[in-house]
Amino acid sequence: MPRRPKHPRLPNGYGSIRYLGKSRKNPFAVHPPADIDGNRPPAICYVDDWMKGFIVLTSYKAGTYTPGMEATLEIPSSASSKDLEALASRLMADYNRVKGIEPEEPEKSFTEVYEAFYANKFPEGHKYSNATVRVTQAAFKNCKSLHDKIFRALRSEDLQANLDSCPLKHASLEHIINLYHQMYHYADGQSWCDKDYSKFVKIKKEDDDEHGVPFADDELRVLWKNVQDETAEMVLIICYSGWRISEYIGLEVNLKEKYFFGGMKTEAGENRTVPIHSAILPLVERRMVKYGKLLPRSQSEFRADMEDLINRLGFPNDPKRTPHDCRHTFSKLCEKYNVAENDRKRMMGHAFGNDITNRIYGHRELEDLRKQIEKIKVNL
Question: In CATH, what number does 211-373 get?
Answer without folding.
Answer: 1.10.443.10
